[in-house]
Design goal:
39% of the residues lie in helices and 21% in strands. It has 491 residues and is of the alpha/beta class. The protein has 2 domains: 6-243 and 467-474, Aldehyde Dehydrogenase, Chain A, domain 1 (3-Layer(aba) Sandwich), CATH 3.40.605.10; 252-436, Aldehyde Dehydrogenase, Chain A, domain 2. It starts with 5 loop residues before the first strand and ends in a 14-residue tail after the last strand. The structure holds nicotinamide-adenine-dinucleotide (NAD).
């Protein structure tokens, strides 16, 4: 069976909008070709979702949950195959891809548990013989747009809460990494998801993404991706007054204080910068180190960065795979060049290796920059690659002030064992997610939400689920008379 087909109305369908090659970042070679949706097929997918939604919402939540548990089990049973697809289309090391796929299964089992937990409220009425209640109801049809950095887990992050809420969904993966989502489409069918409940369409953002997010018949847009795309989607959504939930970029500060466990901080800073080749919205993007431990930290950090094993991401010995694409590789190279022009000093100068692990891949070794100032572009703009500016700070106050000097506000890290500093950071760090003495990833039960340009709304946990539900207030009068004065009735 060709798993690279879209999923519309319960059918696996080829796209009518042309075809696209999918590149393997390890080799730079085409390894698959897929068909992409036409705009008419986006309409078909939204219509299928609309038609399926009332029946799906009418099922008992436990029946919906049973299907979600089957999806979770099927993802786990096929984990190795899916992990290898993730590696081939996206380039992260296989161990990380296995973690991603475990997360993809986890979203379904976690949200299935909400079958008995989506609750309402009963309110006292102003009148006798009347009950007022607020119940949570599905929003209807969800449009979901996801990026390339977690092509399997982000499918689940959008689809699972949508399903338990009683919604139907049309999802568009990133055009460069569509295969994980399409493969999952097969698992959704095998799990017995009714026709139209999950639809997957492929295609470019500016055409198919835009056709989906501007569609007049969607009730919620949930998107993960870059800030410029998030802004465009919000503007498009304004035309139809459709609510949006946006998970956008990050510029996480990683604060290392002089009293912390330095080895833990170094290992964490390395993991948090270089996982997925630095292509994670919660990555350590600015390392801020107290002057008393700066030299010690930097020496160990550079040594650990140098020791990372660049290699074929299908090998279990690899720490750092290729960048996702030539475009992203060149973007990060430009960022480093500009930083050095602005005065940053490369303590470790990475870049394209002279002898790449595999010919043709988008390889990039780590770069560590010092001598940076908070106003420099490298300290303000998202890098999304294996490059990190490290800045010396004189005090905790300075660290907090530099940390907050950002138009992003997603994740922040603090390494200290001083409880007073921990509590100050919790109060004063103006970010949606604060990690203390640990790295990510975020947990299913947390709330992944960014402030300022990092987004609107959020994903995961009970608060993430809220976006997929709306509230309905019911005034139920059973007194036999009206609780309010009525207009005269002329017979
Ligand atoms: P991107 O914005 O280029 O693309 C994201 C998705 O939007 C893709 O599916 C794309 O096709 C689609 N798209 C593009 N233009 C569109 C339009 N006009 N209308 C509708 N859809 C459109 O982002 P990317 O490069 O794939 O992802 C990297 C970005 O994602 C980084 O900034 C990263 O920080 C962010 N990210 C955020 C989180 C989070 O949870 N906050 C998680 C992962 C990635």
């Amino acid at each position: 069976m060709n798993t690279n087909l879209m999923l519309i109305g319960g059918e696996r369908i080829a796209g009518n909008g042309g075809s696209r090659d999918v590149f393997n970042p390890t080799t730079g070679q085409v390894f698959a070709s897929i068909s992409e949706a036409s705009k008419a097929q986006v309409d078909d997918a939204v219509s299928a979702a609309r038609a399926a939604q009332p029946h799906w919402a009418a099922m008992a939540p436990l029946e919906r949950a049973a299907i979600m548990h089957r999806i979770s089990a099927l993802i786990s049973e096929n984990a190795e195959e899916l992990a290898r697809i993730v590696v081939q289309e996206q380039g992260k090391p296989i161990n990380e891809a296995r973690g991603e796929v475990a997360g993809a299964a986890g979203f379904f089992s976690y949200y299935a548990e909400f079958a008995r937990r989506i609750q309402g409220e009963i309110l006292p009425s102003d009148a006798r013989g009347e009950q007022i209640w607020i119940q949570r109801v599905p929003v209807g049809v969800v449009a979901a747009i996801i990026p390339w950095n977690y092509p399997a887990a982000l499918v689940s992050r959008k689809v699972a809460p949508s399903m338990i809420a009683g919604n139907t969904i049309v999802l568009k993966p990133h055009e460069e990494t569509p295969l994980s989502a399409l493969y999952m489409g097969k698992l959704f069918m095998d799990a017995g998801v009714p026709a139209g409940v999950i639809n997957i369409v492929t295609g470019a953002g500016a055409e198919i993404g835009e056709a989906l997010t501007s569609h007049a018949d969607v009730d919620l847009i949930t998107m993960t991706g870059s800030v410029p795309t998030g802004k465009r989607i919000m503007a498009t959504a304004a035309n139809n007054l459709v609510p949006v939930s946006l998970e956008l970029g990050g510029k996480a500060p990683f604060i290392v204080m002089d009293d912390c466990d330095i080895d833990l901080a170094v290992r964490s800073a390395v993991t948090s910068r270089y996982m997925n080749c630095g292509q994670v919205c919660i990555c350590n993007e600015r390392t801020l180190v107290h002057e008393r431990v700066y030299d010690q930290f930097v020496e160990k950090f550079v040594a650990a960065s140098r020791a990372l094993r660049l290699g074929d991401p299908l090998s279990e010995q690899t720490d750092l795979g290729p960048k996702v694409s030539q475009r992203e590789l060149e973007k990060v190279e430009r960022i480093v060049e500009a930083a050095i022009k602005e005065g940053a000093e490369p303590l470790l100068q990475g870049g394209r290796p002279e002898t790449p692990p595999v010919k043709g891949g988008y390889w990039m070794t780590p770069t560590v920059l010092t001598g940076v100032k908070p106003s420099m572009a490298i300290m303000q703009d998202e890098i999304f690659g294996p490059v990190v500016p490290v800045m010396r700070v004189e005090s905790f106050d300075e660290a907090l002030s530099v940390a907050n000097d950002s138009r992003y506000g997603l994740s922040a890290y603090l390494f200290t064992n001083d409880f007073a500093k921990i509590m100050r950071a919790v109060n004063d760090i103006n970010f949606g997610e604060v990690y203390i003495n640990r790295v990510g990833p975020e947990s299913l039960q947390g709330f992944h939400n960014g402030y300022r340009n990092s987004g609107l709304g959020g994903d995961d946990g009970i608060h993430g689920l809220e976006a997929f539900l709306r509230k309905k207030t019911v005034y139920a009068n059973y007194s036999g008379t009206s609780p309010v004065a009525l207009m005269p009735y002329a017979e």
